[in-house]
Specification:
The complex is a heterodimer of chains A (553) and B (505).
Chain A: H1 10-21, H2 29-36, E1 40-41, H3 49-60, E2 63-74, H4 78-89, E3 95-98, E4 110-112, E5 116-118, E6 123-125, H5 132-140, E7 144-147, E8 153-155, E9 166-170, E10 173-176, H6 186-204, H7 225-228, H8 235-241, H9 247-261, H10 270-278, E11 292-294, H11 300-307, E12 314-315, E13 318-326, E14 329-336, E15 341-352, H12 359-362, E16 376-386, E17 400-403, E18 411-413, E19 426-433, H13 439-448, H14 451-463, E20 473-486, H15 496-502, E21 509-511, H16 522-542
Parallel strand pairs in A: 2-3, 2-15, 3-12, 9-17, 15-21
Antiparallel strand pairs in A: 1-20, 4-5, 6-11, 7-8, 9-10, 13-14, 14-15, 16-19, 16-20, 17-18, 18-19
Chain B: H1 3-38, H2 41-62, H3 70-95, H4 102-130, H5 135-188, H6 196-215, H7 217-226, E1 232-238, E2 243-249, E3 252-257, E4 260-264, H8 268-282, E5 288-293, H9 298-303, E6 311-315, H10 319-327, H11 329-334, E7 344-347, H12 351-357, E8 362-368, H13 375-378, H14 383-390, E9 393-402, H15 410-422, E10 426-434, E11 438-446, H16 465-471, H17 492-504
Parallel strand pairs in B: 5-6, 5-8, 6-7, 8-9
Antiparallel strand pairs in B: 1-2, 2-3, 3-4, 9-11, 10-11
Helix pairs in contact in B: 1-2, 1-3, 1-4, 1-5, 2-4, 3-4, 3-5, 3-6, 3-7, 4-5, 5-6, 15-17
The chains are: A alpha+beta (553), B alpha/beta (505).
InterPro entries (chain A): FAD/NAD-bd_sf (IPR036188), Zeta_carotene_desat/Oxidored (IPR050464)
Protein name (chain A): Amino oxidase
GO molecular function, one term (chain A): oxidoreductase activity
Amino acid sequence: MGKSDVSISRKEFLELSGIALLGSTLGLQTLTSCESATVIQGQIVGANHAIGHLLRKAISLPIHQSHQTKILIVGSGISGLTAGYFLQKAGIKDYEILELESHIGGNSTFGEDEARYPWAAHYLPIPSPENKELIDFLAENKIITGFDENKLPVYDEYALCFHPDERLFVKGFWQEGLIPNMDILDGEKNQIGEFLSKMNAFKTAKGNDQKWAFTIPLAYSSSDTSFTDLDKISMKTWMERNAFTAKPLHWYVNYCLLDDYGTSIAETSAWAGIHYFASRKGKAANAKDDDVLTWSEGNGFLMKLVAKNQLNHIKTQRLAYQIEEKNGKVSVDVYDWKTEKRENYTVEQVIWAVPQMLRPYLMPQQKSDFIKDFTYSPWMVANIQTKPFDTGRGQALSWDNVIYEGNGLGYVLSNHQELSQDQQTWQLTYYKPLVDNNPADERKKAIVKTHEEWKSEVLTDLKKAHPKIEESILKIDIKLWGHAMIRPTIGFIHGSARYEAQKSLNNKIHFAHSDLSGVSIFEEAFYHGAEVAKKVISNIYHGDTDYTNFHGE
Amino acid sequence: MDKNSAKIPILLLFSVFLVATCGLIYELIAGTLASYLMGDSISQFSIIIGLYLFSMGIGSFCSKYFDENLLDWFIQIELLVGLVGGITSSVLFVIFNSVDSFQWILYGLISLTGIFVGLEIPLLMQILNKSNFGFKDIISKVFTFDYVGALLASILFPLVFVPKMGLIRTSFFFGILNTLVALLVLYNYSAQLKYRLTLWFQAIFVFVLLTLGFIFSDNILSWAEATTYDEKIIFAKSSPYQRIVLTRQGSNIKLFLNRNLQFSSFDEYRYHEALVHPLMTFTKKPEKVLILGGGDGMAVRELLKYESVKAITLIDLDADMTNLFRRNEMLTKLNQNALNSPKVKILNQDAFLWIKQNKTLFDAIIIDFPDPNNFALGKLYSNTFYRELTHTLAPEGLIVVQSTSPFMAPKSYWCVNKTLQSVGFKTLPYHVFVPSFGDWGYVLATKNEFSKTQNFPEKLRFMNDAAFEQSKVFPKDMAQQETEVNKLNNQILVQYFEEEWAKVM
């Protein structure tokens, strides 16, 4: 996202968002992606164009309804839902969650028709033992079914990714695993080996503060500059400096970073790049350290668990468009685009659980120059329903199927965790971060493409490995994510913007989102949701205001 | 020389060329087919070439008995070569599995083609000789065209015809070429021919026959491939899940699922008695029994030999399979109409999903799934699946699992044993010899002790105390070995199974 993206005024934003919903290229797709997240089923399903137009009217509308609530959470992605989850655990019930779209979940959104399939995030690596809150959450929800005599978690075997998990299509043949190992030179093979052992060394490395050099949550990582200085160069530069020049290795690292961050090897900082390989320290009684948890609906499964006890606190189809402090409280203007009515919330505490890039629009009175450092990568996700097809030579159809030097990131077989012998339709989820140009340009390009164009782009890529796949395809749905992931570019993670952005405003408006970590993964969203809940809970119980009435109901 | 006789050499020399090409192609097709169908390509090619050349010699020898009506004879021979050569490969493909003496038919057809081809050239030379050409010229021209044709054939055959047309179509194609030569000569010299009407009739018949063969050669091929079963197919159906094929030879009926032999009526009693009865001798008052797989009803037939058994639930995904074994008279005779017993409840459901939601407890569970040759089936042999079974098994109940061959795939077999143990079962591995399968293994499992509660039924044909005692002994070449536990997230059993069967297939 360029500087121009954030320099428009709130009034312009409101005016332009109508156009944005009609397919503007202003990079506001996350906000406007409510119904405009272009779901295509053989055609481009039209966005809810009316919202934008009516939004302009909203400002002139009289306030239809005024609400008083103690806490308001804006956004029902993982961070917002997690905040609510921990509020509930602390016995706090006087809160509401507002969601712009008509469904909840953010990047954990999933689709459900004949099959269930993810629209974005689709797995969780088994977490490190240090990630106590997440481990507790998983245990509470029976994804961890118990602990063995060494206190290692025992995971639900239906959630651990079934074998075969990964395969890579190289020169007409599917090899097992994603690290290229077929048809490569000895020298290249050696480099890959050295690279991986170097990453393993980083995995166990600690800084002078005795903290892990790289860990998840990212906030627990060491601030030792011998590691954090790696944030000042790109992963590509770091690899070149360390004589890691082999082409297959560069392909592999680039692939991994695109997959997790939506940024290329040249854009990702070396710290973030190494973090990908070195931060996961999962341990389990019944799984390998690098095993992952996955479900047909991807992280939608986890999202439902976080949300399940608070569904009556969530209001969808609500656009919060103005947040300001008034008389010691916070006033939040909300547009209900379903009923086309304007609402106002007067609340004690606000949990901001949407991307930072929206701050200048919703809180124009606040100084937020640092927001320009928050940039987001656009993605295209295709969900493809097929009849069984010839899966090619070599390793059998796997969970993750990647084409070497392919155009996208390959596809995940979303029905991989199904137990049935009888799988007459398959669901492939195909991922592609849009990284040919800068994110703003890519968003412009993406929004004008037709379903036919996306379809042929996806098919061209898949046909490299499955020449006859088209005959077996029943349906291709496409969804565009304007601002899918925060980009851990050079200097971002250990720069000042991320720290500035995390500061609460007057102890009344608090921030929680994975973009505050610089890494768009479930664990970080969960961490920020949990952290912000702690702050709010402490304010509620120990603040000077009278909250005696708080337990309500 | 008149006007016509000047044309003779050109047309006939062209015939020599085509005849030589076709002749060599038939030889190559025969060699390829023989090594393809019977293996051992060195012997097959060697025998075919020798036999073919020898037959040509016989043909040449016989040519001296032809004195009159040489052109008639030439056309006649040409048509015969076209017919026999053209249909040889499809005949061989089709009969391959249905006759015992395949190679004699192969050699017979080769000899016949060789004899006809051997006649062609000498006959042509005689014809040319009578047209007052110099002997030297005839020899030189005929053999030149003969050898050029041979070279062309041997180059085009592997590079163009086999890859582009396949053996059957190539065969028809050259048969048609032979017939066209005959037709051309027939047309041009009709006036000189004595039997022209008969020859015309024959030529057109052969031409139409070969052309039809050429057009429908794909159908012939697929039909021929369907006969790669050893015996006569008496039933074939593709259900949504598998290809069901029944064959019969004499009184022996075999069932194939996706080309894998499931049973042979000749010795299936061994397999099914061994599957069912040891389990029952250890089960205290078996009333409710669950069978997973086993849609053929043979295991049910064995179970119905126990009066204590009151209810049998059979879970088999494929309704086509269970319906077949409930309705087909020949098959209900085999399973003694077991699937129509009022004690039996058939559920055409997915075993894993059914087990996960099932709340009923069973006294005995019989698991008769196909071998774990793919990842979908591998799930049904996982520790997770066996753990689910413990929720469906009465506290004192027993399970038996068909566990592939401990001789062919010892690691796979012992992996099933280990996986059962890993979820808290005590196991009792045993194996029996089933001639159609080989040495076959089973594993009994229980959370209790194995204590015998009843005797084997008396009327069994195979299983008794002595046979069971013997079946518990594993000789050195199939002795227990260390393996990993088969889990959903490693599917190690499928890997073992593939490695071990790859060695012997």
